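Incident review: delayed structure delivery

Summary: a single-chain prediction request sat in the queue longer than the usual turnaround. Root cause was a stuck worker, restarted by the on-call engineer. No data loss occurred. The affected request and its eventual output are reproduced below so the record is complete for anyone auditing the incident later.

Affected input:
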Amino acid sequence: MRILSPSLIELHAFVAVAETGTFSRAAERLSVTQGAISRAVLRLEARLGIVLLERGPNGAQPTPEGRVYYEQVHPALAVLEAAVPARRHDRSLRSLRLAAISSLNMRWLVPRMASLHAAHPDLDIVFKPYWKDDDFRREDVDCWIQTRLTSTSRWPSHVQATYIIGREIVPVCHPSVAERVREPADVLRFPLLHHTNYPDNWALWCDTHRVNLTGTRMGPGFDLAAGLIEAAAANLGIAVVQRCLIEHDLAQGRIAVPLDLPISTNRGYYLCVPKARTETPQLAAFRDWLLMQARS
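Output delivered after worker restart:
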């Protein structure tokens, strides 16, 4: 019998590009070179006699024919993957692959990993690269910890998002500055360090506490909360950040909260899981542990 179906290498390469949007990310997912992905897709297109991907300077997207073919082959590949015999001693059965936003990962999650291991010694967390614009369709990640970009933005319809922590922000500064901040308006005497992805955080805090920001010149901006915290610790000004990110710095006396006046941004950090994926005991245990840590 003549076999008409393409090779699994070609199919996996095409599906990876279709889901990640670039050849480089597809290569990272499958642990091969970008050239290998490109050649595999070209072979597949030649075999089928159709163009599956529209290439551009910003990546690659399925053509109409490619989208139809993706919808046909993706479920078949999932069935093949599910048919691989499971073995109890297989480490993959005990692991959970996580992509987490770096600020929360390093300042809140990683310091608590000993507690997770103590509670669930058979659960292995495998940290995967975090992508800011992730579409939550990667096959190399089981779950994500992500933040909403705005207070009104919605998660994609294919994602189940569980709020964990981090909605509230508080002002933080060097301990020597804290002594000179007695009321909300006093923050205007210092440079206002701001998050470039959330430039309205200061306006939200000041509006809540009736501080007039009109004419105020903002201080340096940072694209990561970790940068804001380090700048405040270096006495460069005052920042507003999530309290969950400063626990260690507060304990060490590197920074201080001059005014314990938190406000809610209605954003925070969420555990995100594609709805189509089967809930595993590992994921359930990890979610329960995260929520317990957040409450404590």
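Verification: Residues 27 and 35 are 8 Å apart (CA to CA).
Action items: add queue-age alerting; document worker restart procedure.
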